[in-house]
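dumping this here before i forget
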Amino acid sequence: MRRRSLIRFAVAAVGAADLPLVGCGKQSGGIPTGSNKSANHEEAQRSATSHTREKDMQLGAFSISLAVKDLEASRAFYEKFGFKAFAGDATKNWLILKNGDHVIGLFQGMFDKNILAFNPGWDQNAQKLATFTDVRELQRQLKANGVQLMSEADESTTGPASFMAVDPDGNTILFDQHV
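structure:
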C-alpha cells in the first residue's frame, strides 16, 4: 500500500494518481468501402456517431509517465531534447520534465510499464480549467462506447477520482482528475 501511495503522489505531478485497472473493449471502425451501400451507410452513421461522442470528451492535460531504469541517465537524455526539470524529487526516484506544453514523468522503480495520462480539469501547467468534463462523465461515455472497465471511479462522489484503461496493445491509459 505504501508503494501505491508513493506512486499516486509522484504521478500526480504529471497528472496521474490512483491506479485502478480498466480494460479496453470494442474499437470503433472506419467507414467501410464494400459494395453493400445500405450496410456501408449504416456503418458510416455508427462511425460518425461514435466520433461525435468522442469529440465532446475534454480529456484535460496529457502527459506520459516513463518507467526508467536509471533516472539520471534518462534525465540527461531528455534534456538533450530541450526538456527541463519541472517538479519531482530525484532522491525519491522521480522527476517531471517539461518542454513547452509537453510533459514527461520519469519514474525509477515505481511501476513496470509506461503510462499515458489524461487529467480532466487541468491544463498542461496543472492549473484548474474553468470548465471541463468530469472524470465520471468520461467514464460513462467510454462505457457507452463499449470500453469494458475492470474498475471504476466511484460515481457517487465528486472531485478527485481516477480510472484506467488498457488499449489493445497493452498500453495503460490513466484518467486522473485532481480537482
